[in-house]
Specification:
Number of strands: 13
Largest sheet: 7 strands, parallel
Number of helices: 13
CATH class of the largest domain: Alpha Beta
Mean pLDDT: 95
Strand content: 15-25%
CATH architecture of the largest domain: 3-Layer(aba) Sandwich
Strand order of the largest sheet: 3-2-1-4-5-6-7
Structural class: alpha/beta
Radius of gyration: 19 Å
Shape: globular
CATH topology of the largest domain: Rossmann fold
Helix content: 25-40%
Distance between the termini: 10 Å
Low-confidence stretches: none
Number of domains: 2
């Protein structure tokens, strides 16, 4: 069977789709991946045959993909929530399509069009998913499997990231100052944000293989992006969230309500508050591990990949 994956060209949108694409390849399906060139390198290394549709660079519009649908004739299209126009193109071409989520259903007003109808590959553990989405959507439950390239880290450590779109020197510096007071090694993914001199127990890198570092983390401090949230939960690691925008405030609300995390809103952010909340976060470990157990019970990418022909034409 020929399966075409399509995603928004950013790690936060493409990487959640990679485990299912790899599993589909491994069970014998012919896989191609439509996305902007920013994410082509890791997709190529995994043998997922990435290409840039027509004139698209980041987003994909229906007109961008239509020539490739005619050329490739896929039996099934799997597309991310961030590229709703791919659903339009597939529908026009008469090709079955599945929506692939990146986490909790995002709220209105964050700059993305909410998916409308169709069947969803839902990687959010049900205990955290939006209740209205759970009640109304046609869902295929899929275990979130963090994707990252290998890395060499040793614990104990605290992992700090604000992602690739929301990091600022001011917020990162404040968080680093607070976390450094704990005496634990702090690994920071800066996303390229420039920083001044750092304490001796802080290592700052522009890019970090996130799944590799989380394996050794006692605490993950981050902006509340879906990928980092689910990656920490899958590892059973407590979190301290510093939401900055987009869906991050809604993610933080859900995670705090679950008991697996603490939160500091922008107006509450000081080095003293970061240090205090980070110390308290260990009390959230049992709740984080309970969600990790829930995630482990969700169907694996391999299991779901074997069922994909049921959704094809």
């Amino acid at each position: 069977m020929r399966v075409l994956f399509a995603g928004l060209a950013s790690p936060g949108h493409t990487y959640p789709m990679v485990p299912l694409a790899v599993a589909a390849r491994d069970v014998g399906h012919e896989v191609r991946f439509a996305a902007g060139e920013h994410v082509h390198a890791p997709l190529s290394r995994l043998g997922l045959n990435p290409f840039r549709p027509a004139d698209s660079f980041y987003e994909i519009y229906a007109e961008d993909l239509e020539p490739d649908l005619m050329r490739l004739r896929p039996d099934l299209v799997v597309h991310g929530w961030g590229v709703p126009e791919v659903a339009v193109a597939a529908r026009r071409a008469g090709i079955p399509a599945l929506w692939h989520g990146f986490g909790r259903l995002f709220p209105d007003g964050i700059g993305l069009e909410r998916p409308d109808g169709g069947t969803h590959l839902d990687i959010c553990p049900p205990s955290l998913q939006d209740t209205s989405f759970l009640a109304t959507a046609d869902r295929i439950v899929l275990r979130p499997v963090p994707f990252a390239e290998p890395g060499d880290f040793r614990g104990p450590l605290i992992y700090l990231t604000l992602g690739t779109a929301f990091g600022t020197s001011e917020v990162l510096t404040t968080a680093i100052e607070g976390l450094a007071r704990l005496g634990t090694h702090v690994v920071v993914a800066t996303g390229g944000v420039p920083l001044g001199p750092l304490p001796d127990n802080v290592t700052a890198l522009a890019w970090v293989p996130q799944a590799a570092v989380i394996e050794h983390a006692d605490l993950v401090v981050h902006h509340g992006g879906s990928g980092t949230t689910l990656g920490a939960l899958a590892a059973g690691v407590p979190q301290l969230l510093l939401p900055q925008g987009a869906d991050q405030f809604a993610n933080a609300d859900a995670l705090v309500a679950s008991g697996a995390a603490l939160r500091l809103l922008p107006g509450e952010l000081t080095a003293e508050a970061v240090a205090e909340q980070a110390r308290k976060a260990s009390s959230r470990r049992d709740a984080a591990r309970a969600i990790a157990a829930e995630i482990a019970e969700m169907p694996s990418p391999d299991e779901v990949a074997r069922e994909l022909p049921k959704h094809a034409k």
